[in-house]
Automatic annotation (TrEMBL):
This is Oxidoreductase. SUPFAM superfamilies: Glyceraldehyde-3-phosphate dehydrogenase-like, C-terminal domain, NAD(P)-binding Rossmann-fold domains. One of its GO terms (molecular function) is oxidoreductase activity. It holds the Pfam family GFO_IDH_MocA.
Length: 327
């Protein structure tokens, strides 16, 4: 049984991760730390575990093998470097940190101690992305020219995101730093190495962070991915569109359809493809990797976190300086 400590309930996904840890049946939560002592002690009581006000004290405990980091994004470097140097395996919410320099500090600590590190990149596990990745590897799209990926919700316009979500000193950014991670890390998973990025960020509802964002990324293979995200769109279905010289894949929520040149002799209509099984969720991968000592799973490790932050950091630079950034 893996002993896990929850590091902060700041992130809106923290409770979900705690539930996922327990749902594995292979891990238990033994302690909570939170930069907000009142919030943390209340959460520890709900989870039936102890609360540690001091992070160093928690990390020195023998009944903590691993940690789940849901602290403010701007605290990630300090929290995770300490956790790694204490020999604790690390699962973290995205983004890994606001800057590549901070990510590299975490990476050095992880490499030095050899702990398992997993970052939450859940869209990579989904059936449609697994199908698309397999088709790309098999060359079934031919030459891909354009990919479009969208994630959005109405957290600002619907008024349900907490006020602290708009404090850049804690979040490191707005919609792009949060939901915008999903299209970005998915684009790299599908298309490989990015070479240039440009972005446009707006705040139509007037909060102090970006509420809507679009980034266009050019990849080494010549494909361009448009990554779209928003805190101000109502009932937005997740969207994945892949346009190649030999095939087109369109996915909107659970509606997935495919048209390929190879099927043209049979039908000119879109077909509904058979989707593969989803991969396990990142939390489940993390628990299994820690127990089985198999290391970070492919596509969810330190380098994946660094690659995502490189895109995020340069997208903010692009918007701020009104220019295309070479990566």
């Amino acid at each position: 049984m893996l002993n896990v400590a929850m590091l902060s309930k700041w992130h809106v996904h923290a409770e979900g991760y705690a539930n996922q840890v327990l749902k594995t049946g292979k891990a238990r939560i033994t302690a909570v730390w939170d930069e907000d002592a009142d919030r943390g002690s209340q959460w520890a009581a709900q989870l039936g575990c102890s609360f540690e006000k001091d992070l160093d004290a928690l990390l020195s405990r023998d009944d903590v093998d691993a940690v789940v980091c849901d602290a403010p994004t701007t605290m990630h470097r300090d929290v995770m470097v300490k956790a790694a140097l204490a020999g604790k395996h690390i699962f973290t919410e995205k983004a890994m940190a606001p800057t590549v320099a901070e990510c590299e500090d975490i990476a050095r600590a992880v490499e030095k101690t050899g702990v398992t590190f997993v970052i939450s990149l859940p869209q990579r596990t989904t059936p449609v992305i697994q199908l698309a990745r397999k088709m790309i590897k098999n060359g079934e799209f031919g030459k891909i020219s354009l990919v479009r990926i969208r994630n959005g919700h109405d957290g600002v316009s619907g008024g349900w995101l907490p006020e602290y979500w708009f404090d850049e000193s804690k979040t490191g950014g707005g919609a792009l730093m949060d939901l915008g991670c999903h299209p970005m890390y998915t684009s790299c998973y599908l298309l490989g190495k990015p070479v240039r990025i440009t972005s446009l960020l707006t705040s139509p509802f007037g909060t102090k962070v970006d509420e809507s964002a679009t980034a266009s990324i050019e990849f080494e293979n010549g494909a361009v991915c448009t990554c779209e995200t928003s805190f101000v769109t109502y009932n937005t279905p997740g969207a994945v569109e892949i346009y190649g010289s030999d095939a087109t894949l369109l996915a909107y929520g659970r509606d997935v359809k495919l048209k390929t040149k190879s099927l043209g002799k049979y039908t000119n209509e879109y077909i509904v493809p058979t989707l593969p099984e989803a991969l396990p969720m990142p939390v489940e991968m993390f628990v299994d990797a820690c127990i089985n000592k198999t290391g970070s799973p492919e596509g969810f490790g330190v380098q994946d976190g660094i690659d995502l932050t490189r895109l995020l950091e340069n997208a903010y630079i692009s918007n701020r300086e009104n220019r295309i950034v070479t990566l």
